[in-house]
Amino acid sequence: MELMQAIESRRSIRAFKEDAIVTADQIKEMVKAAGLAPTWKNSQTGRYYLAISEDKMEEVRKSLPEFNVNSSKNAKAYIVTAFEGKRAGFDREGNPDNELGDMWGAYDLGLQNENLLLKAREMSLDTLVMGIRDADALRKAFDIPESQIVVSVIAVGVRENDVDMPKRKEVDSILKVF
Ligand SMILES: Cc1cc2nc3c(=O)[nH]c(=O)nc-3n(C[C@H](O)[C@H](O)[C@H](O)COP(=O)(O)O)c2cc1C
C-alpha cells in the first residue's frame, strides 16, 4: 500500500467486524513499525501492552467508559500505550532540557503510534485510539510501573464499513508561510 493511501484511508473505526481475525504477530509488526519512528535522542521510551485474550480484553473494557466499550465492540485486540517518564526531554541527571519536560515523551509516543496505525492500515487492519480511559485501572491490570506514564488504548480490528473522513482544516488555516 502506498503511504498516502494508508494515511488517507486510516480512520477512527467505531464499528468493527465480528468475524475478523487479528493475530499477536500482526500486532508485533505494528509495534516494530512504531519502533522505527524518530525519538528524542533515540530514547525510544514508548511501551506497549497487548490484550488479545478475552480475559485481558475484558479487563481493558473495565477501564473504558461505556461509549468506548461500545465503539470497540468486536475489536480483536487492545494495545495499551505508555512511555517511560523523565527520559525524553531530560538530561542524564534527570533535569528537563527545556520547558516541555515529559511532553517530549508524549510527543515521541505520538510519532510512534502514528507509525503503528499506518502499519495496521497496510495490513488491512483498523484502529481506534482512545484517550478516555482509566489509567489507574490499566496500570493495575498490566502491572505497569510507576516510572511509566499510561497514555492511550488502541483498539484493533477490521472495519465493518468505510466511514467518511471528518472534516479537516484547510492547509492555509494551519500554515503560515514567511
Ligand atoms: C489522542 C487521541 C485520543 C482519542 N480518544 C478517543 C476516544 O476516547 N474515543 C473515541 O471515540 N475517539 C477518540 N479519538 C479519535 C478522534 O476522535 C479522531 O481521531 C478524530 O475525530 C479524527 O477522525 P479520524 O481518526 O477518523 O481521522 C482519539 C484520537 C486521538 C488522537
Which structural traits does this protein have?
four-stranded antiparallel beta sheet; globular; NADH Oxidase; alpha+beta; 178 residues; 7 helices; 4 strands; binds flavin mononucleotide
Describe this structure in words.
- Helices cover 36% and strands 16% of the residues.
- The protein is globular and about 50 Å long.
- The mean pLDDT is 98.
- The protein has one domain: NADH Oxidase.
- By secondary structure, the protein is an alpha+beta fold.
- A four-stranded antiparallel sheet has the order 1-2-4-3, sandwiched between helices.
- The structure holds flavin mononucleotide.
- The site of flavin mononucleotide has 12 residues, from helix 4 and strand 3.
Task: Record the SSE blueprint.
Blueprint: H1 3-9, H2 24-34, E1 46-51, H3 54-61, H4 66-71, E2 77-84, H5 103-122, E3 126-130, H6 135-142, E4 148-157, H7 171-174
Antiparallel strand pairs: 1-2, 2-4, 3-4
Helix pairs in contact: 1-5, 2-5
This protein binds flavin mononucleotide (FMN).
